[in-house]
Structure formats: C-alpha cells, structure tokens
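Recap quiz, item 2
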Amino acid sequence: MKLKTILAAAILFLSIPSFGQSNITETTLEVDGLCGMCKKRIENAAYIQGVKKVNWDLSTHELAITYRNDKVNEQGIIAAINSAGHDVKDHIATDEQYATVHGCCTYRDAEMRKSHGLDDALCKPNETHEEHHAHGGKDKH
Amino acid sequence: MILAVAFGCTVNTALGQSDSSSIQLFETLDQVNIGSDPGISLSKKAIITQELISEVELRKAACCDLSESFETNASISASFTDAVTGTRQIRLLGLEGPYALYTKGNLTTMGGLASVMGLGFIPGAWIQSIQLTKGPGSVVNGAGAISGQINYELRPSFTEQIGHVNLFAGPGRFEQNLIYTWHQSKKWSSNIMVHGRQQLFRWDGNKDGYLDTPLSRHFFVQNAWKFNGKNSEGQLGIKFSSADNIGGSTLYGKETLAPIWSHELQTDRYELWAKRGYFLKGGINRSIGTQFSANYQDLDSYFGERLFTAKELRTYGNLIFQDNIIDTRRSIKVGADFNLHNVEQEMWGSNGDYDASTFGIYGEYSYVASPDGEGLSMILGQRLDHLNITDNVDKFFYVPRLHIKYNSGAWSLRSQASRSYRYTTLGAEYMGYMANNRVFNLSSGSAPAVESAWTLGTSGAFTKDIAFKELQITGDVFLTKFDRKMTLDLDQDTETALFYNRSWTMNEWEDQPYSLSAQFGGQYELLHRTLFKFAYRYQKVTQLNLTAFNQGIDNELEEVILNVPHLLYGGISYTGTKGLGIELNATYNSSQRLPNVGYDDRSPAFTMLGGQVSKEFRRRGQVYLGLQNALNVRQLNPILGGDLPFEDRFDASVVWGPIMGRQVYMGWRYDLRKP
C-alpha cells in the first residue's frame, strides 16, 4: 500500500511539466542510413537541447522526433543531422560532413545499399558534388 | 533510448545474425538487442526477473573483470574475500558468490574450484553484455542458481567490429586486452582474445606491513569458433588461464631477521566447449541443441604456514529438444544433462577429495498469451537429478520451478516459487578463510555438503513516458529459505572456526535460515542527456547460531557476518553529443556485523564515491579517466594480529570495506571495424 502511494506521488510529480504543453511538435523526417551504428549516430545527432524524443527506424528510414518548438526548430535539427554526416530528404549533407561517417556506414554507396537491401539513396548518384554543396543542408528545394 | 554512445554495426548487417541468436536454442528469454542500448534495461518480455547490463553500462566503471562489473548496479555487491589475495566475491540476494550460477552464452562455466576466483578470469573487455537473473531461473541450466544466474556473452566473431583493444592503468596495475577476428567466411568465423594483467609495485597505503593488493601476473587466451549454417549453428572454443599472485608481507623475497607471513597462489585453468543446434522444420521454437564443456584446473597455494592445493576436472553435457504444442504460444523443452566432477584438494590440513556425478532429466512448459508479452505468461519447469558423491550422497532431487508474469500497459508483475540445490566445494568456496591462523573444525566432515532451498520472489516494474522521457521504476522482494545449509562460524573465539552442516524438516520451517532481500529503484532522464538512477536495498541474512547450538539450543538464528543490511545507490550519467561521457556513482553501505570475539560489534557505515570522464574520438577510439573511492574510505586494519603473524589470533579474513584508498585510473579503448 505504502509503495503504491510513493509510486503515485512520484509519477504525479514527474508528470507535472508535461501538462498543458502546447509548444510540443511531433514530426517525422526521412533520414538516410544503413545500419545500427547509423541509427545511433542519427539519434545522437538529432537529440539536441529542446528535443525530447527521437527514434530512427532502420527499415522505413523515418526519424520520429518530438521537440519543444519554442526552444528549437526543424531547421536546427536537420542541420545537426547533416553535420553528423547524414542526408535528410531535401537537405543533403556536404561531402565533408558525409566523409565523417565510418567506412561501414557509407550509405550513399550503391554496393553497400544493395548488400543492406536498400533502394536509391536520398542523395542521387547523378547529382554532381557541386550540387550537394549548393544544397548545403539548409536550402529547400 | 538514445543515451548511448555509438558502437558497432552489429545488428542486421550483411553478415546476418548477431552472435546472441546462437543461444536461442537454449533459452526462452529475450535476446539482447544490441541496436538500441540503454545501459541497464529490463526486458518486458522476459518471464523471469532479469536485468540486462550492456557494454555501454560496463564502460561506465573501471570494470576490469566480471567480479568488478557491477559497480553501477545495486542488485549485486562485490567485496574482498580477504585482505591478501585480492579476490572479490559477489553477493546476490545476500548470498555469497557460489550460490549463483555462472553461464557463458547459457553454458555453465564456473563451479567448484572456480566458483569464487573464476570471476577474475573473465576480463571486462571481453564481455559484450551480462544478463542478471534474480532468483533461480530455468531448469534447463541445472538445479543450482539458488541466488540467481549471471549469464555473460563474450564479444562475437560474426560481427563487423573485428578488433578491440583496451589498455588500462591503475595504481601499479596494468591490463592489456586484445581481441581480433582473424577469420570470417560465409559459414565460419573465429576470434582470438588475449588478456594480460600485472600488479608490479608493492603497495602498502595503510602502512601495516602487508601488501594492500597482491603482486600478480595474469595471462588468459581464448580462441572461439562459430558456425552459421542454413539450418544449424555451432560454436566451439578453447581457453587457457594462468594466474600467479604474491601477497602478504611487503618484505616478500627480501632478507629478514624474523620469519614473514606471505601468500602465493599459482593456478592454471584449461577450458574446452562446444555447442551445436539444429532448427527443425515447421516454424519457430523447434530445435535440437547440444552443449558440452570440459575444464581442468590446477591450483597451488600457501597462506603463511597453511597449504591449499587443488586439482579439478569437470565435464558437462546437455541435450535439449524444443517444440511447440498446438501453436507458438505454447512451447516445451525437454532434455537430459550430466555433470561429472572430480576434485582433489588439501585444505586446512584435511583431505577434501571427492567425486561427484549428476545425471538429470528435465521438462519445461512455457505459455505466452501474446507475442508482445501483454497479459499472462508463465514457465513451469521440473527436473529430476540423481546426485552421487563418493561415500557421502546417493540421492534423487526433485526440482520444480514456476515463474509467472503479468503485463498490463506500463506494468509488469512477476512472481516465482522455485526449488534449488547445490553441493559445496569447501576449500575453494571459502578460500578467503585460509588467510588466518584459526583452527578449522570440520565437524560434519570435509566431504561436499548438499545445500537446498526454496525461493519465493515477486517483482514489479513500471515503465512509462513522462514528459516524453522514459521513467523506469522497479521493486522486488525475494525470500530464500534453506532446508540444508552449511554454516561457518567465527564467533566462538579468535582461534577457531567451525563448519557445520545441518538440515531442517518441513515442520521446522520457522527455524530454517533464510535470506530476505528487498529492493526499490528507478531511473529517469531528468535533465537533457543526463540519466539519474537511484536504488535502495534491504537485506536480512541469517544462519544457524552455532554458539547457541553448542549450548543445546538448536533453533536459534543469528545475522551472518559481513552482510550489508541497508544499501543506497545513486548515479548520474551524462552523454554528450560529441562523444563525451561523465559518470558519477555513490553507494552507501550501512554497518555490517563482525565476529563476536576480537572485533568491534559492527563495522562503520561507509560511502563509496566514484566518477569517470570519457571521450570518444571519431577515429582514435575512446579514452577514459576515473576516480575510485573519492572519499578515501579504508578499513585501516584489515589484518588482525599482523605484527605477530604466527600467533593464533592472526586473521586477514574479515574484510568489510575497501583496503585501497582513493585511486585514479585511466585507459584507452579502440574498436577496429571492417573497412
């Protein structure tokens, strides 16, 4: 009985900040990657101050993200993912950023994608490297 | 879930299964998901109460071998067995190390001679993860595990992380670990693990003339093979361990006027194991598996004028058949196993030789209402063993076990009622008690004694997202009642020690010695990227009061010595975006009972405080720098009568706290991945 009371009190206390928060945004981003190591890198990069929850799905490539829109915006999160070397739909990382991912996570490489059973990369192989820079992870198409 | 540092492309890679899939054949429990790694986690699906301690968690403490891997975990305490050998033993549910079952990939590894010191033979850097089960687990792994099961997985060979280096340096202590997967093909892979440890400097911080930690040289090497076929899997391996320790007087090897008290221990251990599993047609849960292991250990040691020598040969085999009944929600496992155990030892001047053979058959029925673990699940296991120990025991043991779990939303509730038994290996399990000049009275003989117990346990877990972050709250209560138990008593005086083996009938239920353990804890990411953990543990452990027994009162219980009744743990763990990690851990231990004569009533309470900073670089691995025992707490006189080491009252076996004071350590880890 006592345990239950303590539990209830603890839960009540911890749930206070979540009441009436209208400044919470939940959204999904399409982020390219290959493996479990990519998952960790993507989630780690996106989990910046103001972000509450991240979960990247290896099979759908969707990053589910919950954040406080008064503290951070989507552009900021995308820039953080790009700077960890990962492409977001319509926001391709620069080659310098991409070069920082580990050799086993080269998700733009056609052979690697094939061995992991993936379709085309977000970063199209026919795009020139200059174009990647132009996109720079900031400009929208 | 994201409070994790990035390691390893291990899941769903081109190579297919991660290594942990290989033990599916031998267990019903959830497998380790290496992909998302929260440190310590509780599986919602596991029917038996267990915690998973991942590599991320293991990296949070200095952690040099299995016995030191639980510093951030309140369920297990590790303490020195004595003040000279440097051996640590763990306590789970208030019971000493040998009451737990140790398995590697669910194959029984250490028992008998290695049941205490064997934990020191498993380097932390070799470990991928540890599954900690509280209370007796599955009957498939035998009838032991009175306090629980510690199942560890070593780094696999079928992985993209093909190499690992870990170099560690503490006060006078150096460790080197090297793991390399030298062969990988479609079906076969193999890795080699090497570990070296040296304690090179004489360290006597408390200036009592005795080494705080023994001079030592350890060398372990292992070669493991794994086979992944279309419908079958296999593993085999070989390991060699060698340890060489010198403890006792700091004057060892120097010319002295008076004789000095010293200790030397030299041991070699050889292990060989193989596993084979076939998946049968017709869906999941259908398989046949075999396990086999053999080990030989040779040990020579002396503690002052006392000799302890031992040789052990052990072979173990298990055949497991698993199938569904009606549908995949109901499955059974049936099987048979054997364990042949030969020990030759000389301890406390007595001959402790024995031959033990165990043959067992078992059956286990599992029911899961829903694949996601919601609703009711249960495991009903039964086992019948025939145990024969030379000239002493020739008996059947019936071991029933029932585990029930009910999940509803955020809640998981588990309960168990289990029977278990084991036999003692007197010398090796009580090796810390060699480090004194007490006269040992083996009144019930030096042959192995059978110990058996009933365990009742219940636990609850609550997991829910609060303000978008996961809150975990857990609580459990376990009661272990012994109806056969070996008692060691140091209360008579400072010159003697008494072993006594006694059994109780069902009618004497109230007189049976017991261990009661209750724990309550939780964790929550209170600040961004900062996980807060806390736990409180209560333990009451009793044994037969032999002083009263010798005066004719045969049903009095007393608190055991060196049990920590109240323990508080708090931990803070910060994980930065750029590979920075900061850990802070504090553990408060309340006072422990000490032997009645020649000691204070109780030890002082003390708090261990430690911290670690680590930084992972993109290409240069991870460096770590830590501080242990920041408050410099010490048991200043761990050796009683050390100035007259050949008098009767010399005693280095009663250690309640740390012997070394504040310590700084550092190290470097590097993972080599396939290009």
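Residues 546-550 of chain B form the longest helix (5 residues).
The longest strand of chain B covers residues 327-347.
End of item.
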